């Protein structure tokens, strides 16, 4: 069957829209619960959450990027194992980031084991 | 000294590997090198990473132009590059990018004092207006089409691409998982699928074509240094977006100058990104981010890095010439229709391997959007909205 451009465009448009809707639905279903840092508690252990804050400190070892974030009310530590260089660039002191991951306990303290770190706003000054 | 040379050479060879294989992002290898920390000393690792990223930026154009399999750094080259390939001028297209890379490096180093002044005077202002500049470019992409019908389809393409970019790129997964399906879909698979459908024949390649002018190369390279400075300075602005902004700002430029511009952006960015890291502590490229973890940059390190960039640019140019001839001879000898199908299947397999089922859906949607652009006769650069819209949202704090 010969496919002319008119038909191909219609099929392609339908496929593009269907794909976009599917991706949006998946993103919505898989979106972690957005919480304030202060709301993260023992009852959330094992849950996927997303919290925003300012990076207050950071440390990079060969296998992990460990950092602390705080908002106006609370602070929490986060760890990103095997971070990409994009994440290393994003997580700098003073930057506003959104951390998405699982709430875990490490050495008696709650932390977020991050799956992703998204830059919200760059640090304005280099401390 | 010998150790540094060996690591530079090793980096260049790694860059050839990452550049030739679509889907192997140089940032992934940077992160791996950082994690493994080879242990020979921080400066040797820095030299390896710099050499790799620069060589990658040259060799990257070979699969983009010869096979229609682009990466983030070379995606805009696929469009004019593929046209030239079909006319038997694939080697010419690749040589233009190489010329841009070499001359762009020299011009970028020569323009360093201007760049320092630019960072000092314009850096803050550019940050404030960049969101609006990108919005203007997006509007020009739509309004620049002739006739209502084409404007309508350009708007559809920009809207679809922008939405795909927002949904996929803001999922938070790494660059390889998110960018690769979209880049290969919009600019690779759609081109190849349409060529297969139209039964395009690839003309015999003229491997000796060197029909470029000094003026054209120089002008393209100067533009590449300007675009490279934007990439180095502004977060979220990649080589493709910078190329589009510069192209819209400077008006219509010929295909050959545009290819030179594209070839030079990544290498001039390689120089400027480290200067930016040194001056204001911001890492705008994966390589710069990796280097930032290894040492506190000094002026001496910058000089060493610039020397490494120049060395790797020379190696990259020679390697690209060598590899491109062999790849183009192979492409020429193959049945282009079967080759096109094979490459699309391979790209789909790589997308599935790196990005999973979600990546495959993104790849399919992006390919379909690219086909909408092709069949409507509108410029495929409108698909760049997938990068530009998320960047606009970032700059406008949405």
How would you describe what is shown here?
The complex is a heterodimer of chains A (127) and B (398). Chain A is built from two helices and six strands; from the N terminus they run αββββαββ. Chain A has helices spanning 5-30, 85-90; strands at 33-34, 48-60, 64-70, 75-81, 96-106, 109-121. Chain A is elongated and about 65 Å long. Helices cover 80% and strands 0% of the residues of chain B. In chain B, helix 8 (148-169) crosses helix 16 and helix 10 crosses helix 11. The model of chain B has no long low-confidence stretch (mean pLDDT 87). Chains A and B meet through helix 1, helix 2 and strand 6 of A and helix 2, helix 8, helix 13 and helix 15 of B.
Summary keywords:
heterodimer, A: 127 residues, alpha/beta, five-stranded mixed beta barrel, 2 helices, 25% helix, elongated, B: 398 residues, mainly alpha, 16 helices, globular
Element order of chain A: H for helix, E for strand? HEEEEHEE
Order of helices and strands of chain B: HHHHHHHHHHHHHHHH
User: In one word, what is the shape of chain B?
Assistant: globular
Strand element count of chain A: 6
Q: Name the chain pair whose interface involves the most residues.
A: A-B, 40 and 48 residues
Percentage of residues in strands of chain B: under 5%
Number of strands of chain B: 0
Q: Total helix count of chain B?
A: 16
Tell me roughly what share of residues is in helical segments of chain B.
over 70%
Q: State the low-pLDDT regions of chain B, or none.
A: none
User: Could you report the average pLDDT of chain A, rounded to the nearest whole number?
Assistant: 89
C-alpha termini separation of chain B: 49 Å
Binned, the helix content of chain A reads 25-40%
How many alpha or pi helices of chain A? 2
- Describe the strand arrangement of the main beta sheet of chain A, using strand numbers: 2-3-4-6-5
């Amino acid at each position: 069957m010969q496919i002319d451009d008119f038909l191909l465009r219609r099929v392609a448009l339908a496929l593009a829209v269907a794909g976009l809707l599917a991706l949006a639905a998946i993103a919505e279903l898989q979106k972690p619960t957005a919480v304030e840092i202060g709301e993260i508690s023992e009852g959330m252990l094992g849950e996927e959450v997303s919290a925003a804050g300012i990076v207050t400190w950071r440390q990079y070892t060969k296998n992990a990027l460990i950092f602390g974030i705080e908002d106006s009310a609370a602070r929490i530590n986060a760890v990103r194992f095997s971070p990409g260089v994009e994440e290393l660039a994003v997580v700098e002191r003073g930057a506003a980031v959104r951390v998405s991951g699982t709430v875990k306990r490490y050495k008696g303290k709650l932390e977020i084991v991050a799956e992703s770190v998204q830059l919200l706003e760059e640090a304005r000054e280099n401390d | 000294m010998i150790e540094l040379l060996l690591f530079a050479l090793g980096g260049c060879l790694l860059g050839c590997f990452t550049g030739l294989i679509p889907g192997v992002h140089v940032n992934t290898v940077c992160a791996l090198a950082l994690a493994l920390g080879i242990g020979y000393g921080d400066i040797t690792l820095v030299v390896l990473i710099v050499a790799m990223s620069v060589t990658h930026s040259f060799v990257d154009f070979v699969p983009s132009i010869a096979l229609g399999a682009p990466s983030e750094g070379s995606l805009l080259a696929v469009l004019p590059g593929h046209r030239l390939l079909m006319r038997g001028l694939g080697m010419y297209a690749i040589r233009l990018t190489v010329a841009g890379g070499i001359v762009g490096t020299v011009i970028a180093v020569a323009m360093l004092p201007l760049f320092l002044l630019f960072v000092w005077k314009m850096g803050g202002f550019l940050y404030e207006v960049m969101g609006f500049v990108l919005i203007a470019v997006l509007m020009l992409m739509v309004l620049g089409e002739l006739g209502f019908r084409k404007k309508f389809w350009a708007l559809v393409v920009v809207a679809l691409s922008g939405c795909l970019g927002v949904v996929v790129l803001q999922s938070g997964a790494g660059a390889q998982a998110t960018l690769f399906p979209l880049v290969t879909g919009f600019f690779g698979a759609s081109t190849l699928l349409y060529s297969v459908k139209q039964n395009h024949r690839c003309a015999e390649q003229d491997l000796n074509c060197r029909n470029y002018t000094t003026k054209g190369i120089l002008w393209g390279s100067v533009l590449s240094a300007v675009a490279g400075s934007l990439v180095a300075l502004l977060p979220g602005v990649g080589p493709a977006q910078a190329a589009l902004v510069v192209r819209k700002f400077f008006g219509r430029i010929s295909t050959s100058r545009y290819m030179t511009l594209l070839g030079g952006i990544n290498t001039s960015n390689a120089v400027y990104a480290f200067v930016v890291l040194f001056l204001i502590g911001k890492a705008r490229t994966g390589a710069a981010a990796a280097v930032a973890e290894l040492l506190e940059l000094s002026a001496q390190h910058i000089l060493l890095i610039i020397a490494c960039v120049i060395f790797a640019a020379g190696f990259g140019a020679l390697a690209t010439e060598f590899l491109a001839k062999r790849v183009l001879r192979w492409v020429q000898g193959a049945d282009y229709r079967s080759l096109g199908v094979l490459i699309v299947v391979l790209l789909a397999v790589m997308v599935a391997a790196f990005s999973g089922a979600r990546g495959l859906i993104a790849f399919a949607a992006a390919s379909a959007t690219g086909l909408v652009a092709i069949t409507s006769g509108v410029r495929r650069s409108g698909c760049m909205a997938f990068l530009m819209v998320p960047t606009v949202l970032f700059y406008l704090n949405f």
